[in-house]
Amino acid sequence: MVKAREIQEERFKDVTGVYSNAQMGSKLLRTVCSIPEEGIQLMKTAMERLGLSARAYDRILKVSRTIADLSNSEDIKTEHLAEAIQYRSLDREGWAG
Question: How many domains does the chain have?
């Protein structure tokens, strides 16, 4: 986990007020969280099936970026998105508290 935090600190070293993925705004999010075409399709399907908002979409991207950092992956892969979507669907079902 320390390594993931170091990756984030390095990523945002030139961005004022942002120190972690969770703090990214929408504009920065689009720059930092590019996803493959397969991932875009997965996100579209999840948005439709789970009835997610644009805000939820952004949160999933942030969590995906963090999962990729924990995997020491420069790119967000489809499996990172799938894991983040799974967490979101659990949250919507009330499993997160």
Answer: 1
Task: Give the structural domain span for 12.
Answer: 2-92
Residue 56 lies in a domain: yes
Residue found under tokens 């875009």: 40
Helix axes 78-92, 37-50, angle to 10 degrees: 10
pLDDT along the chain (97 residues), means of 10: 93 95 94 95 95 93 97 96 90 54
pLDDT of residue 89: 75
In a domain, 97, yes or no: no
Which two tokens mark 39? 């991932």
What are the start-end ranges of the H helices in the chain?
2-11, 26-32, 37-50, 54-70, 78-92
Task: Decide if 43 contacts 81 (C-beta within 8 A).
Answer: yes
CATH number of residue 70's parent domain:
1.10.8
State the distance between the two ends of the chain, measured CA to CA, in whole angstroms. Answer: 23
